[in-house]
Amino acid sequence: MDLKPVVPFEPILTSQIPQGENWAAQIKWDGVRMLSYFDGHEIRFVNRRGHDRTEQYPEFRDIKNYCSASSVILDGEIIALDEKRPSFHEVMKRDSLRKTKSIEAAIKQIPVTYMIFDVLYCDGNWVTDQKLSIRQRILQDIIKESPHVQIVQNFPDGDALFQVMKQHDMEGIVCKDLESQYIIRGKDKRWQKKKVSRDLLAAVGGATFRDGVVNALLLGLYDKSGNFLYIGHVGTGKLSHRDWENLTGKILTLTIDSKPFVNQPERMKGAIWIKPEIVVKVQFLEWTPGATMRHPSVQAIVDVDVFECTFSQSK
User: Fold this and answer.
1) Does the pTM exceed 0.85?
2) Containing H/E element for 251?
3) Does the residue 45 lie in any domain?
């Protein structure tokens, strides 16, 4: 395949929703960021961390069913619904599958939708230097929408959209400058995200048990100097009992003699320490004055490099 994967443009966190006619607000879907690359012969799906996920989503391989471009790079998110709301936990069930039979069965068990919000390359030409408003018109021209392929909608009133997201317990919104170019490897205020609640990728550095099964995880993040800092413990969330049992088996293979955290965890009684190799997505309300998470819950176990678990995620 001739088209090489790129690092996508990222929004920055904001507490103030930008205003003005040149701003469009979009729903922040709680899914997996996914770029699709079609060179005219072969299509590949690659997540924002550069991991190939083509095999996991076979329902999107025949791109001619939903895109008329002769070659294209599309940017979007793949989402799965749980009780009519996007669920990161559900989509990660699909994303983590590796066996062909399991993937084929999951197409019906966990249906997914590709929410497309940008185009980087079309019909042999890069369009990243075009305004977002023009790129969105290109999407309208080339994408044939269906129940499982959608173009992400613009909303003119970011404040109103954010209130709707709060009412429905959704992740948040992304506000985009309609004049903005698409900056590969970029991250600046031309795209801004405001979340209803916070979330992070955190590494597991310890665990506690109940009846032989892990019942809470001690989590940490890396600072700029590479120090691993404890940020709290979590024992609730969307993991099933079977998930906790499977996690127990993996944790027991990673035990170490001393705590990996440079600071002192608040919850140590009965804890075992492990080498930080397991990564989870955790949602929480806010940071406490002591730099730990308030009301955290585990959303999913994720397959990413542990050194992506940094404090810079909150910027």
Assistant:
1) no
2) helix 241-251
3) yes
